[in-house]
Amino acid sequence: MTANAIPLERLDADVIEDSIYRKVSWRIVPLFICCFLFAYLDRVNISFAKLQMASDLGFSETVYGLGASLFFVGYFLFEVPSNVLLHKIGARIWIARIMVSWGIASACMMFVQTEFWFYTLRFLIGVMEAGFVPGVLYFFTQWYPSSRRARVNSYFKSSIPLCGIVGGPIAGLILGHFDGVMGMAGWRWLFLLEGIPSVLLGVVVFWLVKDRIEDATWLTAEEKNVVLARMAKESAPATPQKVKDIWKHPTTYVMSAIYLCLVMALTGLLFWMPQLIKSAGVTDTMNIGLLTVIPYVGAVIGNLLIGASSDRHSERRWHMASCATLTAGGYLVCALFPGQLLPLMIGMTIIMTGIVAWMPIFWTIPPRFLSGIAAAAGIALINSLGQLGGIIAPFMVGRIKDLTGTATPALFALFAVSVLAIGLIVWGIPKRYYAKEAAQD
Q1: Cβ–Cβ under 8 Å, residues 136 and 95
Q2: Which of 95, 220, 234, 426 has the most CB atoms around its CB within 10 Å?
Q3: What is the 3-state secondary structure (H, E, C) of 191-241?
Q4: Model pTM?
Q5: Is residue 214 in a domain?
Q6: How does pLDDT run across 65-76, given as a tens digit for each residue?
Q7: Cβ-contact 437, 313 below 8 angstroms
Q8: Alpha-carbon distances, residue 384 vs 75, 134, 272, 341, 427 (angstroms)
């Protein structure tokens, strides 16, 4: 045996562990991907509804942008309390509650008649959904070691491009074929038909999800012991952390600033993609829905490849910085070629690929300096502060478009935001949090 040879028993243990985690992932991840898919459908279906809703109700671009943003106000205010409650109550009950309540609130958007109720319901959807994403990410930290989280996070976040792949055509179909059915506008049907599945999935989560490894009836006793032993090897602070400890880490603020830039870049495109395509001369709602699929297909491929590369090399900083660079480059292309469909589609595909691959790598870092309830609250705080970007970007794009008649200045602004994120990633995160993760023996 050479000096660098790996013992046979270690190889056997790795094969066994890989086999068990494949079983865990097949049980957990597809369900949460499906849940996140409908979370994003309910969050962004307003971008498709606007194709009919704005003219029906007489809403300006600024009114639409503000309504899109108000979702994130509710999300921001209730994110941390929601995740603290999730830590105390358990993921199964709390995530099920989140899904049922946001599904009902989203379906109620079909009754909107005035700006007041448009703003109110968008705010309430944010309140009800608050805690879902950080709750699931925290749940993953209880089941997966750090060396596996970029991959599982990337699978989970692949729901964003999947939402675009299935959401665009479905929205276009509902808007085009349900318009006038039973005397209701197509956009009202859109909110109803995309809100109901979230309620049903909430019930599924309640019955299928297990909070603790020990409670998983679908794992054998031996399999549970392997997973528990693997999780026990994760490094943890010498003393238990409390919620107040999240404020002691300067990295919490740096990560929040990076995530704010990321969310601005995401929502700036997410809520305006159908409008940008329409501005390039495409008017049919079904065709707009089909064209929105293209950036998301590119994002799915890029997300899985970049996430796997980050885990394979145990490297986070330069993978994140590369994703932010892709995002910046895509916005620059869109800004330089306004109203031209081909460059616009290429630019939006680059943007979406960078953003979607960026997210799962980003979320591997907070658990490296937070643990226990501090991890639940810290992940929620970073996500919550970052969601302020979702308040800023949609309103900013709408306001600029009302004032100038074009979204191009806003695209340049989002390019600058992405460049700022590159600087924060490269110089703002302490090396000990992105350095190669030691083998967990």
Answers
A1: yes
A2: 95
A3: HHHHHHHHHHHHHHHHHHCCCCHHHCCCCCHHHHHHHHHHHHCCCCCCCCC
A4: 0.71
A5: yes
A6: 888 889 888 888
A7: no
A8: 7, 9, 22, 34, 23
